[in-house]
Design brief:
Largest sheet: 6 strands, mixed
Order of helices and strands: EEEHEHEHHEEEHEHEHHHEEEEEH
Distance between the termini: 34 Å
Structural class: alpha+beta
Number of strands: 15
Radius of gyration: 22 Å
Helix content: 25-40%
Length: 390
């Protein structure tokens, strides 16, 4: 269950001293080939961290041999000096990999860089660069779990996954436990595959997968500056899957990781699926689902085990979706508490004592549907995010 399950990949995770706790904070994933195709999707936030700006350029080149990641600092809102730090990290990583393996000559333009942590502070390069060298020395086929631990911030556990194709595999790791909103999350994700696939095929598969997985988790409505999802292909299996097969496996891996992110969201006591059906369009369904998912009155009601369907209906009414107010039905955990925009079954029948909650909204306006996944809003979430930087 890691990025090194597919053939052709090695990884490492080390402690470089970026975190005051002394925990692992630098990860490295390397593609030994024979291919080195890549695709990536990044945050839609206009305020983008330096490693995002760098990695967007690298991915545009279509070849990535290594991804270096750090926790303990986002390197966001750090100006030109922060971008120079990212460039230096890529150069240092490329030189260290090349020096350690004469058969694999890597340039800085083939190294993607990812960072996560507190926004607004420069990275301690005197610690990061030695950490990179240590990670290069520690690269192994068994290094996936250590790499997944090294990218954690407020996560309570590492997130890894594997999806099997026929003779080929997709592996992955991710981090993220807050700022989970559209255009992904405060998350870093590296996916690997030993399938034979070029940049265009990888890009199509990754965008199709993220559109219905990472882009539809919305824990707290906050969009990060550092969101990055990368998909690397080594071609080591020698098997070229169809577009449909590749997309299905990448989607399965992304869905699994997205649900792990949601389950580990900061302070959450509920994982909530907002299922919108009977919509006039998929966009309408997504808009309604996301609006309900972001509504603090709905989220606090769920935290209090209160099936307050009136708050749900009120949230639906703030959207531009096509529907008639007296034609909307709402069910909470299978109990249709609202029919035709009015009270229906006794809300006391709704059991909200477990972590899993399903809210189903039928707009009766068409045949399209979408699901948005979110969490409740708890005291613990407020506490953790009020004290994050201190």
């Amino acid at each position: 269950m890691s990025v090194t399950v597919p053939r052709g990949f090695r990884a490492a995770g080390v402690a470089a001293g970026l975190k005051s706790s002394g925990a692992a904070d630098v990860a490295l994933v390397i593609n030994d080939g024979p291919d080195a195709g890549v695709a990536g999707v990044f945050t839609a936030n206009r305020v983008k961290a330096a490693p995002v700006l760098w990695s967007q350029q690298v991915v545009h080149g279509g070849v990535v041999r290594a991804v270096v990641l750090n926790s303990g600092g986002a390197n966001a809102c750090t100006g030109p000096a922060g971008f120079q730090d990212t460039h230096a990290t890529a150069e240092h990583t490329a030189a260290a990999i090349t020096a350690a393996n004469a058969r694999l000559i890597v340039g800085a333009g083939e190294v993607a860089v990812c960072s996560t942590g507190l926004i607004g502070e420069r990275l301690p390069m005197d610690k990061l660069l030695p950490g990179v060298r240590e990670a290069v020395r520690g690269l192994s086929r068994d290094g996936g779990p250590a790499a997944a631990e090294a990218i954690m911030t407020t996560d309570t556990r590492p997130k890894t996954t594997v999806a099997q194709g026929t003779g080929w595999t997709v592996g992955g790791m991710a981090k993220g436990a807050g700022m989970l909103a559209p255009a992904m999350a405060t998350m870093l994700c590296v996916l690997t595959t030993d399938a034979v696939a070029g940049p265009d095929a990888l890009d199509a598969a990754l965008r199709a997968a993220t559109r219905i997985t990472f882009d539809r988790i919305d824990s707290d409505g906050c969009m990060s500056t550092n969101d990055t999802v990368l998909l690397l292909a080594s071609g080591a299996s020698g098997i070229e899957p169809t577009a449909e097969e590749l997309t299905a496996a990448v989607t399965a891996a992304c869905h699994d990781l997205a649900q792990q992110l949601l389950a580990d969201a900061e302070g959450a006591t509920k994982e909530v699926a907002i299922e919108v059906v009977g919509a006039a369009s998929e966009d309408d369904a997504v808009e309604v689902g996301r609006t309900v998912a972001r509504n603090n009155l709905v989220k606090t009601a769920l935290f209090g085990n209160d099936p307050n369907w009136g708050r749900i209906l009120a949230a639906v009414g703030t959207t531009a979706a096509v529907f008639e107010p007296d034609g909307v039905d709402v069910a909470v955990n299978g109990i249709w508490v609202c029919r035709g925009g009015a009270a229906a079954e006794d809300r006391a029948k709704v059991d909200l004592t477990g972590r899993g909650v399903t809210v189903r909204i039928d707009l009766h306006a068409g045949t399209d549907a979408a699901t948005i996944w979110t969490n409740d809003l708890s005291h613990a979430y407020v506490h953790e995010n009020s004290a994050y930087s201190t």
